[in-house]
Amino acid sequence: MSYQNRISTKRNEMEGKGTEGGVPRVIAVSSGKGGVGKTNIVVNLALALSRMGRKVMVLDADLGMGNVPHLLGLQPVWDLSHLLEGSRTIEEVVLDGPFKILPAASSTPGLTNLSADQKIQLLEKIGRYREPIDYLLIDTAAGLDDTVVYFNIAAHERVIVTSPEPTAFFKAYEMMRFLMQT
User: If you ran DSSP here, which 8-state letter would residue 181 be given?
Assistant: First the structure.
């Protein structure tokens, strides 16, 4: 089975887990360049959806620089590294706040770029999360590495964030052009 087919299969296995019996909406939020406000948009979107009564989980997939919990004043005890190595379950790793947060392993060497098996394993573990989710928001890293592309392929919808700066516009355009071909 091809890599893209494996991704689609895992996304489809997550379907039906929403609180209204529907598909949790998977939205990847990315940027071609760092520092454009991507994480702030993810956090504010998650807060807005939560206030509307939706069950939201944010996957902090900015693996080298994840900071979703810190924006909310939360300090994770465990993170993605513990989940992927199998020392903790997803229920133990997920933080409770105004919405659920699956924190990145920001200071763990080797986890800035996940292997194909780790990416599939991560989607499987999220798919087995015991609580229903209406929205899974994925805060990816900036740029177009394999992990960013993977999370964008796995998403139902993609949001590309930019800022009014020539380099940011160019990188956003480059990213959109590339992702439209996947």
Answer: T
Angle value at C-alpha 36, between 134 and 178, nearest 5 degrees: 75
Q: What angle do CA 90, 133, 96 make, to 5 degrees?
A: 55
Q: Dihedral angle at the C-alpha atoms of 55, 58, 161, 10, nearest 10 degrees?
A: -90
b or e along 29-56 (b: 16 or more beta carbons within 10 Å of the residue's beta carbon)? bbbbbeebebbebbbebbeebbeeebbb
Phi, psi of 128 (to 5 degrees): -95, 5
- The whole-model pTM stands at 0.88
* Structural domains of the chain, ranges and CATH numbers in brackets: 3-180 (3.40.50.300)
pLDDT tens digit sequence for 15-53: 544 555 556 899 999 999 999 999 999 999 999 999 999
Instruction: Give the span between the Cα atoms of 37 and 92, in whole angstroms.
Output: 29
Maximum separation of any 2 CA atoms in the chain, in Å: 44
